[in-house]
Amino acid sequence: MPFHSFQVAQANTFTEETSIIIVTTYGATGDGGADDTAAIQAAIDACKPQGGTVLFPKGTYRISSNITLDERVQFLNAAKLSVDSGVTVTISGVIDAGMYQIFDGNGSVSLATGSCEYVLPQWWGAEGNDSTDCAAAFNSALIAAGNVGTVFIPAGVYRISAPISSWPTTSGFSTQRSGIIFRGAGNGDTIIKYTGTTGYAIEVRP
Length: 206
What we know:
Layout: E1 19-22, E2 31-35, H1 37-47, E3 52-56, E4 59-63, E5 67-69, E6 72-75, E7 79-83, E8 88-91, E9 95-96, E10 103-105, E11 108-111, E12 129-133, H2 135-144, E13 150-153, E14 156-160, H3 171-174, E15 181-184, E16 190-194
Protein backbone atom coordinates (compact mmCIF):
# COMPACT_ATOMS: atom_id res chain seq x y z
CA MET A 1 0.00 0.00 0.00
CA PRO A 2 1.59 3.33 -0.99
CA PHE A 3 2.26 5.85 1.75
CA HIS A 4 0.50 9.17 1.32
CA SER A 5 0.38 10.85 4.74
CA PHE A 6 0.74 9.97 8.38
CA GLN A 7 -2.58 9.19 10.01
CA VAL A 8 -2.88 9.70 13.76
CA ALA A 9 -4.95 7.40 15.93
CA GLN A 10 -7.86 9.84 16.07
CA ALA A 11 -9.34 12.19 13.49
CA ASN A 12 -7.67 15.60 13.45
CA THR A 13 -10.83 17.68 13.82
CA PHE A 14 -11.49 20.60 16.10
CA THR A 15 -14.73 21.99 17.46
CA GLU A 16 -15.55 25.19 19.29
CA GLU A 17 -15.15 23.29 22.56
CA THR A 18 -11.66 22.06 21.64
CA SER A 19 -8.74 24.02 23.08
CA ILE A 20 -5.53 24.59 21.14
CA ILE A 21 -2.79 25.42 23.61
CA ILE A 22 0.38 26.86 22.06
CA VAL A 23 3.47 26.14 24.16
CA THR A 24 5.09 29.49 23.38
CA THR A 25 2.13 31.21 25.03
CA TYR A 26 3.27 29.59 28.29
CA GLY A 27 6.87 30.70 28.01
CA ALA A 28 8.54 28.08 25.81
CA THR A 29 11.23 29.70 23.65
CA GLY A 30 12.02 26.95 21.15
CA ASP A 31 15.55 28.31 20.74
CA GLY A 32 17.25 24.99 21.50
CA GLY A 33 19.18 26.38 24.46
CA ALA A 34 16.73 27.55 27.10
CA ASP A 35 15.07 24.89 29.24
CA ASP A 36 11.45 24.66 28.05
CA THR A 37 10.38 21.80 30.36
CA ALA A 38 8.39 23.92 32.81
CA ALA A 39 6.67 25.89 30.05
CA ILE A 40 5.62 22.70 28.26
CA GLN A 41 4.31 21.26 31.54
CA ALA A 42 2.31 24.46 32.08
CA ALA A 43 0.78 24.10 28.60
CA ILE A 44 -0.11 20.47 29.31
CA ASP A 45 -1.72 21.43 32.63
CA ALA A 46 -3.71 24.22 30.96
CA CYS A 47 -5.09 21.70 28.47
CA LYS A 48 -6.32 19.22 31.09
CA PRO A 49 -9.59 20.83 32.30
CA GLN A 50 -11.44 20.44 28.98
CA GLY A 51 -8.97 18.57 26.81
CA GLY A 52 -7.66 19.68 23.46
CA THR A 53 -4.34 19.91 21.66
CA VAL A 54 -0.95 21.17 22.80
CA LEU A 55 0.67 22.76 19.74
CA PHE A 56 4.41 23.06 19.10
CA PRO A 57 5.23 25.73 16.50
CA LYS A 58 8.52 25.74 14.57
CA GLY A 59 11.45 25.60 16.98
CA THR A 60 13.65 23.31 19.07
CA TYR A 61 12.29 22.78 22.58
CA ARG A 62 14.84 21.59 25.11
CA ILE A 63 13.65 19.10 27.75
CA SER A 64 15.95 18.80 30.80
CA SER A 65 13.88 16.54 33.08
CA ASN A 66 11.41 13.69 32.72
CA ILE A 67 8.01 14.78 31.49
CA THR A 68 4.78 13.06 30.42
CA LEU A 69 2.74 14.56 27.60
CA ASP A 70 -0.66 13.05 28.32
CA GLU A 71 -2.72 15.35 26.10
CA ARG A 72 -2.93 15.35 22.32
CA VAL A 73 0.26 16.93 20.93
CA GLN A 74 0.70 18.45 17.49
CA PHE A 75 4.11 19.18 15.98
CA LEU A 76 4.24 21.60 13.06
CA ASN A 77 6.99 21.10 10.48
CA ALA A 78 10.40 22.07 11.95
CA ALA A 79 9.14 21.75 15.53
CA LYS A 80 11.08 19.23 17.60
CA LEU A 81 11.86 18.22 21.16
CA SER A 82 15.54 18.13 22.14
CA VAL A 83 15.77 15.67 25.02
CA ASP A 84 18.79 15.90 27.34
CA SER A 85 20.87 12.80 28.07
CA GLY A 86 19.38 10.65 30.82
CA VAL A 87 15.93 12.23 30.39
CA THR A 88 12.78 10.44 29.17
CA VAL A 89 9.86 12.07 27.41
CA THR A 90 6.74 9.91 27.71
CA ILE A 91 3.91 10.57 25.28
CA SER A 92 0.61 8.97 26.23
CA GLY A 93 -1.62 11.37 24.33
CA VAL A 94 -2.17 11.14 20.57
CA ILE A 95 0.70 12.39 18.37
CA ASP A 96 -0.18 14.59 15.41
CA ALA A 97 2.91 14.97 13.23
CA GLY A 98 3.98 14.61 9.62
CA MET A 99 6.87 12.80 8.00
CA TYR A 100 9.58 15.05 9.45
CA GLN A 101 11.87 15.14 12.47
CA ILE A 102 10.22 15.90 15.82
CA PHE A 103 12.72 14.34 18.27
CA ASP A 104 16.37 15.20 18.86
CA GLY A 105 19.00 14.93 21.60
CA ASN A 106 20.54 12.05 23.51
CA GLY A 107 17.59 11.33 25.79
CA SER A 108 14.81 8.77 25.35
CA VAL A 109 11.27 8.90 24.00
CA SER A 110 8.60 6.47 25.22
CA LEU A 111 5.38 6.21 23.22
CA ALA A 112 2.34 4.68 24.91
CA THR A 113 -0.05 2.22 23.33
CA GLY A 114 -2.61 4.21 21.33
CA SER A 115 -0.43 7.30 20.94
CA CYS A 116 0.05 6.50 17.26
CA GLU A 117 -0.74 3.76 14.76
CA TYR A 118 2.95 3.24 14.00
CA VAL A 119 6.31 4.89 14.58
CA LEU A 120 8.16 6.71 11.80
CA PRO A 121 12.00 6.77 11.70
CA GLN A 122 11.59 10.21 10.13
CA TRP A 123 10.62 11.48 13.59
CA TRP A 124 14.30 11.07 14.54
CA GLY A 125 15.70 12.45 11.29
CA ALA A 126 15.75 9.49 8.89
CA GLU A 127 15.60 10.39 5.21
CA GLY A 128 15.15 7.95 2.36
CA ASN A 129 17.47 9.85 0.06
CA ASP A 130 20.21 7.20 -0.34
CA SER A 131 22.61 9.59 1.38
CA THR A 132 21.72 10.30 5.04
CA ASP A 133 22.98 7.79 7.60
CA CYS A 134 19.75 6.62 9.26
CA ALA A 135 21.17 4.08 11.72
CA ALA A 136 20.61 6.20 14.84
CA ALA A 137 17.13 7.21 13.73
CA PHE A 138 16.07 3.61 13.07
CA ASN A 139 17.37 2.45 16.45
CA SER A 140 15.60 5.30 18.26
CA ALA A 141 12.36 4.45 16.44
CA LEU A 142 12.80 0.79 17.39
CA ILE A 143 13.16 1.64 21.08
CA ALA A 144 10.13 3.93 21.01
CA ALA A 145 8.00 1.32 19.24
CA GLY A 146 8.02 -1.06 22.20
CA ASN A 147 4.44 -0.27 23.19
CA VAL A 148 3.19 0.66 19.72
CA GLY A 149 4.29 -2.50 17.93
CA THR A 150 4.97 -1.23 14.39
CA VAL A 151 7.69 0.81 12.69
CA PHE A 152 6.56 2.07 9.30
CA ILE A 153 9.26 2.92 6.75
CA PRO A 154 7.95 5.07 3.87
CA ALA A 155 9.23 4.64 0.32
CA GLY A 156 12.88 5.54 -0.16
CA VAL A 157 16.44 4.26 0.07
CA TYR A 158 17.76 4.34 3.63
CA ARG A 159 21.47 4.00 4.35
CA ILE A 160 22.54 2.60 7.72
CA SER A 161 26.16 2.33 8.85
CA ALA A 162 25.43 0.28 11.97
CA PRO A 163 23.00 -2.56 12.70
CA ILE A 164 19.40 -1.99 13.74
CA SER A 165 19.63 -3.74 17.08
CA SER A 166 18.21 -1.55 19.89
CA TRP A 167 15.28 -3.79 20.77
CA PRO A 168 13.09 -2.44 23.57
CA THR A 169 13.45 -3.83 27.07
CA THR A 170 10.24 -2.31 28.45
CA SER A 171 7.52 -4.47 29.93
CA GLY A 172 5.19 -3.32 27.18
CA PHE A 173 7.40 -4.90 24.55
CA SER A 174 7.02 -8.31 26.15
CA THR A 175 3.26 -8.06 25.59
CA GLN A 176 3.75 -7.71 21.83
CA ARG A 177 3.40 -11.42 21.09
CA SER A 178 4.47 -11.05 17.48
CA GLY A 179 7.33 -8.68 18.36
CA ILE A 180 7.83 -5.42 16.50
CA ILE A 181 6.71 -5.24 12.89
CA PHE A 182 8.83 -3.41 10.33
CA ARG A 183 6.50 -2.40 7.51
CA GLY A 184 7.60 -0.83 4.25
CA ALA A 185 5.70 0.98 1.52
CA GLY A 186 5.72 -1.95 -0.89
CA ASN A 187 7.94 -4.40 -2.75
CA GLY A 188 10.95 -2.48 -4.04
CA ASP A 189 9.65 0.84 -2.70
CA THR A 190 11.37 0.74 0.70
CA ILE A 191 15.05 -0.22 0.58
CA ILE A 192 17.55 -0.43 3.45
CA LYS A 193 21.21 -0.28 2.40
CA TYR A 194 23.68 -1.55 4.98
CA THR A 195 27.05 0.18 4.64
CA GLY A 196 28.69 -1.27 7.75
CA THR A 197 31.75 -3.50 7.52
CA THR A 198 30.72 -6.00 10.21
CA GLY A 199 27.48 -7.53 11.42
CA TYR A 200 24.12 -7.40 9.68
CA ALA A 201 21.53 -4.74 8.84
CA ILE A 202 19.13 -6.09 11.49
CA GLU A 203 20.46 -8.00 14.47
CA VAL A 204 18.44 -9.86 17.08
CA ARG A 205 20.21 -10.94 20.24
CA PRO A 206 18.77 -12.98 23.13
